[in-house]
Design brief:
Length: about 400
């Protein structure tokens, strides 16, 4: 996959903003042009409406949310306490079930230690901290704590850990199960271990499963056919990730979301009406990028760094993901994001900054109202412009 610099403005719908025509890199090798959120903008229509008349509610399976977002399963973003607060605020907090909270009884002690680490020693020390074993009893306790608060319970495992720990997760009473990795396929090949049979696994569960990441229509269709309720789009694009630098893998998100949204339409016809949700996961750090993700076809957004800036965030002003402490090949950093306000201020305001880091969903509502759309489904049809 490749993408080129743009030298003109072009009006597009999300049907055409996916991967564009091939470009010849050299004899025998071609690449496709693709676009990031920074390279597109939303075009207002002839109609406007009052923001109060706009709905940004989102429903997946039986679970309805006032705000169309999931908090990413990252220890700097979601603790049991913040999962509860996010749920009460109208979103879905997804707990990392192979993180600090399921390895240590006193997780706050480890988090405080990581916040004080000098930058040149942070990765090595984090590798040591995360080497502690995952405890199934702690999985049960953490999820029970969230459930007791009366909010929707969601937890995430990587594909490598799913077979080992999914029973503990289901027994603990999770409502939504997330399988999240750098990339997840329905056809993993291995000579060493039996791969996870995703279709069989999802079929045998009694809860909706969200799976990702992926970046192409073909990859998304495989995940949709496996029975996923939602598909995460993107990998290597988060602010704390270095996957592009380490592995050379990345994806311009505007094109990726639009292409997976096209796969959703194809699968809707193929399956006779089964709708699979498209969730943008990566390169979404401001309110404007949330609006652009929906405009490209996303039903909801999975966010990390914007929420790590909340005063209640467990990272204490720092942000990192699972890739940062990988035992053999770290693909992320611990980055200092600071604190901009309370969780509620970050989500629904009021904002005291003009950089798109606060009142994220008030801004989404206003963007939709400015363009004349009343709900998320309608807003997915808005025109966008490619800009130099």
């Amino acid at each position: 996959m490749g993408f080129k610099s743009l030298d003109f403005n072009r009006l597009l719908t999300t049907d055409t903003i996916g991967y564009m025509s091939d470009i010849e890199l050299g004899p025998g090798k071609r690449a496709r042009a693709a676009y990031s959120f920074d390279e597109i903008a939303i075009v207002p229509s002839r109609r406007t409406r009052d923001p109060e008349e706009v709905s940004i509610t989102w429903q997946i399976d039986a679970y309805k949310f006032d705000l169309p977002f999931l908090a990413a399963p990252m220890d700097s973003v979601v603790s049991p306490e913040t999962a509860i607060a996010i749920g009460k605020a109208g979103g879905l907090g997804v707990l990392n079930l192979e993180g600090i909270w399921t390895r240590y009884e006193d997780a706050d002690k480890q988090l405080s230690e990581m916040a004080k680490l000098p930058q040149d020693k942070a990765i090595k020390k984090m590798q040591e901290i995360y080497a502690a074993p995952i405890q199934p009893t702690l999985i049960k306790e953490r999820l029970a704590q969230i459930r007791a608060a009366g909010v929707t319970v969601a937890g995430a495992l990587s594909p490598q850990r799913t077979a080992e720990f999914h029973k503990a997760v289901i027994d603990a009473g999770v409502d939504i199960f997330v399988i999240r990795g750098t990339t997840v396929s329905a056809e993993h090949v291995s000579d060493k271990t039996a791969p996870l049979n995703l279709k069989k696994f999802i079929y045998e569960l009694d809860v909706p499963v969200i799976v990702g990441g992926c970046a192409t229509a073909q990859g998304a269709l495989h995940l949709m056919r496996s029975g996923a309720a939602g598909v995460l789009v993107g990998f290597g694009g988060g602010s704390a990730h270095t996957t592009k630098t380490v592995l050379g893998i990345s994806v311009p998100m505007a094109s990726a979301v639009a292409e997976v949204a096209s796969a959703r339409r194809d699968y809707l016809d193929e399956s006779g009406g089964r709708y699979v949700h498209v969730i943008a996961d990566g390169s979404v750090s401001t309110s404007g990028e949330i609006a652009k993700a929906v405009a490209c076809g996303a039903d909801a957004i999975m966010m990390g760094s914007p929420l790590a800036k909340a005063a209640e965030a467990p990272g204490k002003g720092w942000h990192w993901g699972l890739e940062a402490h990988h035992g053999e090949l770290p693909r992320g950093n611990r980055v200092q994001v600071g604190t901009v306000g309370t969780l509620n201020e970050v989500l629904t305001g009021p904002s005291n900054t003009s950089d798109g880091s606060m009142n994220l969903f008030g801004a989404l509502r206003r963007s939709m109202a400015t363009c004349g759309y009343s709900d998320l489904k309608e807003f997915q049809r808005v025109e966008v412009v490619i800009q130099p």
